[in-house]
Each structure stands twice: as structure tokens, then as C-alpha cells.
Design goal:
CATH topology of the largest domain: Glutamine Phosphoribosylpyrophosphate, subunit 1, domain 1
CATH class of the largest domain: Alpha Beta
Number of strands: 21
Number of helices: 17
CATH superfamily of the largest domain: Aminohydrolase, N-terminal nucleophile (Ntn) domain
Structural class: alpha+beta
Shape: elongated
Strand content: 15-25%
Helix content: 25-40%
Largest sheet: 7 strands, antiparallel
CATH architecture of the largest domain: 4-Layer Sandwich
Distance between the termini: 10 Å
Number of domains: 2
Mean pLDDT: 89
Oligomer: single chain
Length: 471
């Protein structure tokens, strides 16, 4: 049976960060991970390299501010470091799955951090285990390290050749940051499914899942790592090498819709601007007869602003988010889940009472939280609630690092729009069209698999697993 996942707890797997050639690299990595905290709240870690080339690691369960303090950061000397924030999807939780992974090897120690999901992880794990590999974790991220270490021929070759060979065996979504005693490698999958950007900080370099982390530490954005590219960063500067000539720009559309911070730019497009344009397009496609527009905090506020601007309706703060609720864990009973939603969100009675509300949200997963928000607004006196979703209906699982891996978790995989409308208690319901996702960012390529069931990669056994576990 699939685990309970509420609409407001849709999670992306993780965020990665790396810095080279800057004194106190671990402290800056701490601030970078704090900026990426929205990408994973279950665990985090930092590995640094000291002046002698030795690798040091601190990791733990919890938020960045819970795992690290001045004492822990003092254990991470040097001017080079990589970090990771994690939310559990593939492979499950546990301290052994918290990254960066650190590997001791006679060819040289190295660490790696990964954002994404390897869809051919099972056959690769079987291949490696049959040849003697022993895995420390259940995470698919560890597979790359074993593929790199399994190189037995050409042991005198530079490590980048082993990395290239290993990356070409992987299928799926990934942004890898690999650190040795002397350099950092930043690698992105050939489909361009996961973001990874390069910044400059003084004489040093920074890589990050999102550009918002550059602003936090005062770094300047330089460019994105290209699909199918390995960027090498060391004391010679940065160098580029393609490991694949097959290059696509199938960026995960949910990065724009939900995951990324509004102040991040992804492949030249600001996330807030994208969401605002999505809201404008949503009004054009599905106008609502309403008195006010209300957005669901926080990721839907930009789309709600665009919807209000296009419609001429006033944008109102009809829902308030409690910013001190902290992390939300899965609640064991339905009653506690209901209370949990009310702890996180409150309707502003004076604003919504007697009003027809156009409620703009970014997505509907199970529909449970959408129903509670609609009920909350009506209990606060809203005369009508017209739900407008700034993305298409989610009909297919994601296998690239988003925690919707079975059909059972998706209400729109089982019901049409009218059935979902009845289930959430809305007076009307409309979704953004898939075509508008491309138009909002002026893009010709995007991964829209969760909305269209058109997957950019081969999927191996995952679709059968999703059917088996789901409907």
C-alpha cells in the first residue's frame, strides 16, 4: 500500500551544492544548503577537503540548522566542499542514505552527492553485486560510485574517463557533484531533467541545484551545466567535456511549477515570472466568475498574482500560512491530519466571508488537502470556491525523483475533472493545459510525463511496479 502523502507535502528528492577555491568552504556550503532547504528536510551533510587532500564528513538527520553548528563546521576544514539536502524517495531513509557519500579507495578517496533518480538502478545494482560490489546504502545514488570504482583496466587513466564510462551506463534524471582531493566534477543527465548551475565567488567557483543559493553567499551566476556535460573545476579553472552527444532540454516542469524557489532562475527563466505567466494563461483558458483571487501559500502565490492581474479581480490574502509550524511529518490518524492542515493554514474570515473565491493552487495530488482548504474557506463564509490549478491534471507517476511513484497516489489518474471537483467540494475546477506549460516559459522542450504519461527516458520495470502498487 502506498504511504500517505498530502498535497502540500509533494517532495523533490534533494539539492546539491559545491564550492572550490574559497577559504572556509564548509561554512559557505552551510549557507548554500540552507538556501536549498526547501528541496529536502530529512537529512543533510557536508564533505570538505583540507590542505593535505584529506576528506572530512559531517552528516545527520534533520534540518541544516539542526545538524550543523560552529563546532561541527570546525570539523570541516579547507577551501573545497560539497553538500546535500535530502528528502527520502528511492531507496528509503536512514542515516546510511544521507549524502554526500564518502568512499575510500586505493585509487584515491572521493565523495559524491546526487539530485534525481536512476531508473535502471535495479539491473545496475545486480550487475555490480554479481561482480563483488558491497553497497553501504539502499540509495540509487551509490551506484555511480561503484561504477567508477569497478574500473580495473587503464588504472593509470585520469578519473574523468571512468566517470564518463559510468555516466553512460546510467538512465534517468541526475545532477551529480563529485569531489576528489584536487577537484570537483559537476555532471548533468543528457535529458536535462534536473537543474545544476555554476557561479563565481571571488577567485573560486560554486555549483548548485538552484541559483538562489548563489545570492545567499554573494556568488555571481555564470551559466548552467549543459545536458550531457561534465564540468571539471580545479586550480586550472573550469573545463568542459561532453560525455554524451545525445542532448535534450527536458527540464522537469515541476521545478517551475512547485519545487524551485521563486528567486531562482532555471535555464534562463525566473521561477516567479514563469508561475505568474502560468496564472495569466490559466485565466485565459479558464476564467472564473469570482469576486477575489486567493493563492495557496507559498508556491501558488505567484500564479495567483498572474491570475488576478489577467482577470482584473483583486488579489487577496485569504489564506495565511503559519511560518513556525516546522517540518510536517506523516500523521497516524485522519483526525490528526485534519488538525495538521489547520495548524499550517488559516482562512481569513473577514476577507473571504460572502465572497466568491477563485482559489489558485499549483497542483492536486491526492485531493485530500484541496478538499480541506475548500471546506475551510466555506466554513469561513465564502459563498463559492472556484478552484483553478496552475498545472495540468497529474495522471502519471514520476520516476525521476519526485515522490509520486504509484498511480494510487494520484486522484486524477482515477477520476476525470468532474469527479475530482466533487471529491474536493469545489463549485468549479479547471486545470492548466499542457501546452501552456511550454508557453509560460517560452520553451520547446519540457518533461511533462506526470501530466501526459510521455516519458523522455526508457523506464525498465518501473511502470509495471507503479501499476502493481497502485491501481
Amino acid at each position: 500500500m502506498a504511504p500517505y502523502i498530502s498535497d502540500r507535502e509533494l517532495h523533490e528528492e534533494c539539492g546539491v551544492f559545491g564550492i572550490f577555491g574559497v577559504p572556509g568552504a564548509a561554512s559557505l556550503t552551510y549557507y548554500g544548503l540552507h538556501a536549498l532547504q526547501h528541496r529536502g528536510q530529512e537529512g543533510c551533510g557536508i564533505v570538505s577537503v583540507d590542505d593535505r587532500g584529506a576528506l572530512h564528513r559531517v552528516k545527520g538527520s534533520g534540518l541544516v540548522t539542526e545538524v550543523f553548528n560552529e563546532g561541527k563546521l570546525a570539523q570541516l576544514p579547507g577551501g573545497m566542499a560539497i553538500g546535500h539536502v535530502r528528502y527520502t524517495t528511492a531507496g528509503g531513509g536512514g542515516i546510511e542514505n544521507i549524502q554526500p557519500f564518502l568512499f575510500r579507495h586505493n585509487s584515491g578517496d572521493f565523495a559524491l552527492a546526487h539530485n534525481g533518480n536512476i531508473v535502471n538502478s535495479e539491473p545496475l545494482r545486480e550487475y555490480l553485486e554479481s561482480r563483488g560490489s558491497l553497497f553501504q546504502s539502499t540509495s540509487d545514488s551509490e551506484i555511480l560510485a561503484h561504477l567508477i570504482k569497478k574500473e580495473t583496466k587503464f588504472r593509470d587513466r585520469p578519473r574523468i574517463y571512468a566517470i564518463i564510462d559510468a555516466l553512460n551506463m546510467l538512465e534517468g534524471a541526475f545532477a551529480f557533484v563529485i569531489m576528489t582531493a584536487n577537484r570537483i566534477y559537476a555532471c548533468r543527465d543528457k535529458y536535462g531533467l534536473r537543474p545544476l548551475s555554476i557561479g563565481r565567488l571571488g577567485d573560486g567557483w560554486v555549483v548548485s541545484s538552484e541559483t538562489c543559493a548563489f545570492d545567499t553567499i554573494g556568488a555571481e551566476y555564470v551559466r548552467d551545466v549543459e545536458p550531457g556535460e561534465i564540468v571539471t573545476i580545479d586550480d586550472k579553472g573550469i573545463r568542459s567535456r561532453d560525455y554524451s552527444q545525445y542532448k535534450r532540454r527536458e527540464m522537469c516542469s515541476m521545478e517551475y511549477i512547485y519545487f524551485a524557489r521563486p528567486d531562482s532562475d532555471i535555464e534562463g527563466c525566473n521561477v516567479h515570472a514563469y508561475r505568474k505567466e502560468s496564472g495569466r494563461l490559466l485565466w485565459q483558458e479558464s476564467p472564473a466568475e469570482a469576486d477575489i483571487v486567493v493563492g495557496v501559500p507559498d508556491s501558488s502565490l505567484s500564479a495567483a498574482m498572474g491570475y488576478a492581474e489577467a482577470s482584473g479581480l483583486p488579489y487577496e490574502m485569504g489564506l495565511i500560512k503559519n511560518k513556525y509550524i516546522g517540518r510536517t511529518f506523516i500523521q497516524p490518524t485522519q483526525e490528526l491530519r485534519e488538525k495538521g492542515v489547520r495548524m499550517k493554514l488559516s482562512a481569513v474570515r473577514t476577507i473571504v466571508k460572502g465572497k466568491r473565491v477563485a482559489l489558485v493552487d499549483d497542483s492536486i495530488v491526492r485531493g485530500t488537502t484541496s478538499r480541506r482548504i475548500v471546506t475551510m474557506l466555506k466554513e469561513a463564509g465564502a459563498s463559492e470556491v472556484h478552484v483553478r490549478i496552475a498545472s495540468p491534471a497529474m495522471i502519471s507517476p514520476c520516476f525521476y525523483g519526485v515522490d509520486t511513484s504509484t498511480y494510487d497516489e494520484l486522484i486524477s489518474a482515477r477520476m476525470g475533472v468532474e469527479g475530482v471537483r466533487e471529491a474536493i467540494g469545489a463549485d468549479s475546477l479547471a486545470f492548466l493545459s499542457p501546452e501552456a506549460l511550454y508557453k509560460a516559459g517560452d520553451r520547446s522542450q519540457l518533461c511533462t510525463a506526470c501530466f501526459t504519461a510521455r516519458y523522455p527516458t526508457a523506464l525498465y520495470t518501473t511502470v509495471q511496479d507503479a501499476n502493481k502498487e497502485g491501481k
